[in-house]
Design goal:
The chain is about 15% helix and about 50% strand. It has five helices and 15 strands. Helix 1 packs parallel to helix 5. It starts with a helix and ends with a strand.
Length: about 350
């Protein structure tokens, strides 16, 4: 089976995992003001549990907006700069199907709309899943054409952990049909593609519309942490998100929680090495982030979340040219990302 069928999904998922907290446009350093509009309330009970509270038959929508801004410079005898500014908007339609005795909920999900607006070095690129496209254009936007309007299912715990996503058979068939040369897939190949698509792309994407809640009960100023391992070039990254209950708040008469998040990271790996005659030396990666979450405690629903992250990575590369003369290139990448989730 050709690897390029899932390669764009793998790239997309890697970005999503690294940027589970994000930073937005160049001038934005904090989350938007409407996250602070809720009136604080006093709660003396120090035994508050944050849990999703689904009911069979519930139907609801979330909008996920991801804004990415990246710059890259490569310096040799001259300097080459490239820039990307991209906005991706997803609409998720959710239908609560079943709830088991352990409060694990099976949810039917359809990404009913995907819109892409990007500026790559001055070139404008757009995609709207509701638009009409030629087969060639659909091939260009394979990942979005495949997952839009393709129902699947997710099992979600009461703490908001997306345990698994399933029912990807029709999505795999659609993805194969969009290839230039569709192939006759065996049952084993379909199962492997389904597993790859689930773990590399759809589960992390689905997790972005939920937030993993603490195991223990909380009070004001309670804190907890979550670890998010990731791979970035030669580095094994351990992202650590610290969450804190800033306030309990009034959400249209319901009891809610305003939660802040701060991201830090540690890394391991050999910054210096050589591969096939090419010498490389990385600088320390720089990763940071912050965010805020509004959660309705009484209804057991995420109302809104904004998370912001910044990543910077630099590497110096040395290699010999055709005349055996050593050439040096310095590459610097800066990426900022903002993820906003809103209950519609």
């Amino acid at each position: 089976m050709k690897k390029n069928i899932v390669i764009s999904f793998l790239v997309t998922a890697s970005i999503l995992i690294l940027m589970a907290c994000g930073k937005s446009e160049e001038k934005s350093t904090t989350v938007t003001a409407d996250m602070d509009k809720f009136e604080p309330i006093e709660i003396k009970d120090e035994n508050i549990q944050l849990r999703y509270n689904f009911s069979k038959g519930d139907k609801f929508k979330y909008k996920l907006t991801t804004v990415t801004n990246s710059e890259e410079s490569v310096k040799t005898d001259s300097t080459i700069n490239s820039k990307l500014f991209q906005t991706l908007t997803y609409i998720f339609d959710l239908d609560v199907l079943e709830i088991d005795e352990d409060k694990v909920t099976e949810i039917g999900i359809t990404i009913s709309s995907i819109k892409l607006e990007a500026n790559v070095n001055g070139q404008l690129i757009t995609f709207d899943s509701k638009g009409e496209y030629t087969p060639e254009e659909k091939q260009r936007f394979l990942e979005y054409a495949t997952i839009s309007n393709s129902p699947y299912r997710a099992r979600v715990s009461s703490r908001g952990e997306v345990i698994e996503v399933t029912r990807l058979d029709k999505m795999i068939e659609k993805m194969n049909e969009l290839q230039n040369e569709p192939q006759k897939l065996t049952i084993e190949q379909k199962a492997q593609l389904s597993k790859n698509l689930s773990e590399a792309a759809l589960r992390p994407l689905t997790q972005l519309i939920f937030r993993e809640l603490p195991e223990k009960s909380v009070a004001k100023d309670s804190t907890w942490t979550r670890n998010y391992p990731a791979q970035m070039n030669v580095f094994n990254i351990q992202n650590v998100a610290l969450f804190k209950i800033d306030d309990f708040i009034n959400i249209d008469g319901n009891k809610g929680a305003k939660i802040s998040a701060n991201l830090s990271a540690t890394w391991s790996g050999n910054k210096k090495g050589e591969e096939e005659g090419v010498q490389y030396q990385f600088d320390d990666p720089i990763i940071s982030g912050n965010g805020k979450i509004i959660f309705d405690i009484d209804n057991g629903q995420l109302i809104k979340a904004e998370t912001l992250t910044s990543i910077e990575l630099s590497v110096e590369v040395k290699s010999k040219d055709s005349l055996q003369k050593m050439q040096t290139a310095k590459r610097n990448e800066k990426s900022t990302n903002k993820n906003t989730v809103e209950l519609l």
